[in-house]
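Predicting holo structure, flavin mononucleotide bound.
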Amino acid sequence: MSGKKVLCVYYSRTGKTRNAMTAVAQALGGELVEITDGVDRSGLIGAARSCLDAVRRSTRFLDKLEMKHPITDYDLVILGTPVWAGRCSSVMREFLKKYGRDINRAAYVITRASERVRYEQVYDQMDLYTAAPRLCAVSLRCGDEGEAFWREEFLKEVNKVLVEE
Ligand SMILES: Cc1cc2nc3c(=O)[nH]c(=O)nc-3n(C[C@H](O)[C@H](O)[C@H](O)COP(=O)(O)O)c2cc1C
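Done. Tokens:
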């Protein structure tokens, strides 16, 4: 815990990114905020809709967000999203469209299903929306035996970044 203001904002369709971001927020004493867009993304039809949204890069308005501070007040904003069709989720894309220009200090947590592919290109896609490139990032395969290791490595990076600021 660094005494710095850390916002951990995430979208999660099936709970994996939520679990990862909850652990990150707890370790850092950060504020945890979930984003949703009111679209029914459950089940197979919801997954197909989400896939289409990701491929088309189409986004919907977000449901109202409750953040304790204006986004510019945070020392670090950690953005968590599942990978959808090799891209960030369209719900996170909408958040980035709306707030990205106000985020100078960003870190990313992406979660994926693939064992082999880490989808690190998603970091660069997300950087297109933020005021400055990410300070650090991690790709997690939730439930994988390496998950805790990579999360800890990420937390070390984040703590360095918070001290250096
Ligand atoms: C529409 C859709 C597309 C997906 N595309 C990919 C993909 O391209 N690569 C991958 O490794 N996992 C992919 N996944 C799997 C999710 O990224 C992975 O299960 C993630 O951890 C789920 O996070 P969540 O439970 O927070 O929603 C996809 C899942 C969905 C629903």
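Residues 12-18, 47, 50-51, 82-86, 111-114, 142 surround flavin mononucleotide (CB under 6 Å).
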